[in-house]
């Protein structure tokens, strides 16, 4: 709308648009660019999760590295959808009443996993939180499938 207003008023077309305006406008990236960055971010998340699983079997720091890489992988996978629909729309949809509990549980277990590794130093608790993180991510993902909510 601002671009149309500038063109009609005779303003310069090269005028910089503010950061807030760009963030609110989810169409600043082309569809192809959005899909490319979605794939890159999602693949990075999957790679982090696989790397974390491989690091699980290291003698001393294996569980800690697993928990950190697994959590980073899940954060990257969630963030990847921001490229498809934009960050504000993603946050709006995450906190809709139909998936509010799933979102809170998912974010809670992400944080608790990192707390168990860095502050509490409990490796067993970190593994339990990673399992709960997986279940919460599954529930969160299923909440986006139409009519899937009616099955639980």
TrEMBL record:
Transmembrane domains' residue ranges: 37-59, 65-88, 100-120, 126-147
Subcellular location: Membrane
Keywords assigned: Membrane, Protein transport, Transmembrane, Transmembrane helix, Transport
InterPro entries linked to this entry: Vesicle_transpt_Got1/SFT2, Vesicle_transpt_SFT2
Domain of life: Eukaryota
GO biological process, alphabetically ordered: protein transport; vesicle-mediated transport
GO CC terms of this entry: cytoplasm; endomembrane system; membrane
Pfam families per record: Got1
Record membrane topology: Multi-pass membrane protein
UniProt record similarity statement: Belongs to the SFT2 family.
Function: May be involved in fusion of retrograde transport vesicles derived from an endocytic compartment with the Golgi complex.
Name of the featured protein: Vesicle transport protein
């Amino acid at each position: 709308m601002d671009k149309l207003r500038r063109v009609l008023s005779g303003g310069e077309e090269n005028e910089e648009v503010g950061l807030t305006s760009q963030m609110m406008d989810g169409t600043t990236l082309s569809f192809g660019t959005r899909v490319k960055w979605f794939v890159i971010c999602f693949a990075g998340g999957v790679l982090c999760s696989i790397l974390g699983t491989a690091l699980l079997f290291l003698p001393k720091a294996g569980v800690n590295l697993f928990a950190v890489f697994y959590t980073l992988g899940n954060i990257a996978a969630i963030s990847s959808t921001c490229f498809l629909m934009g960050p504000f729309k993603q946050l709006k949809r995450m906190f809709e009443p139909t998936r509010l509990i799933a979102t809170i549980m998912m974010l809670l277990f992400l944080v608790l996993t990192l707390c168990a590794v860095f502050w509490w130093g409990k490796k067993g608790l970190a593994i339990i939180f990673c399992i709960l993180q997986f279940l919460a991510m599954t529930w969160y993902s299923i909440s986006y499938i139409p009519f899937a909510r009616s099955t639980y």
